[in-house]
Specification:
About 25% of the residues lie in helices and about 20% in strands. It contains 4 helices and 3 strands; from the N terminus they run ααβββαα. The protein has helices at about 1-5, 15-20, 65-75, 95-100, and strands at about 20-30, 35-40, 50-55. The longest helix is centred in the middle third of the chain and has 13 residues, at about 65-75.
């Protein structure tokens, strides 16, 4: 359903999800219904690693969605390597309230 709703290829990950190679997340900003789909890859020995983050029709996700994705990844100790889907994240800043919820944020 996510693939049809978002008009991107996440449906092709079904086999990888079934055999535990990928985990797919829908990340949504409830204030405006903006959303994106994120995938993480199970590397086996090294654990989970960020794969990609795509909004509708494969466009880049909004800054707010990227912030939510980074929090989810960092809080779950998912490795983030340099990736174009998170480009521009060096410009993302977290306010003091967000930092309290996410004190270990370092990009």
């Amino acid at each position: 359903q996510e693939s049809a709703d978002m008009h991107h290829c996440v449906g092709t990950y079904a086999e990888g999800v079934a055999d535990d190679r990928y985990v797919i997340f829908k990340i949504m900003d409830l204030s405006n219904n903006n959303r994106a789909t994120m995938s993480i890859y199970n590397t086996g020995v090294e654990g989970f690693m960020f794969n990609q983050l795509k909004a509708v029709c494969n466009v880049n996700a909004s800054i707010e969605i990227k912030k939510a994705a980074i929090k989810l990844l960092k809080n779950n100790k998912v490795k983030i390597q340099s990736n174009y889907d998170l480009s521009g994240t060096d410009e993302i800043t977290f306010d003091d309230n967000e930092k309290k919820d996410f004190p270990e944020y370092v990009l």
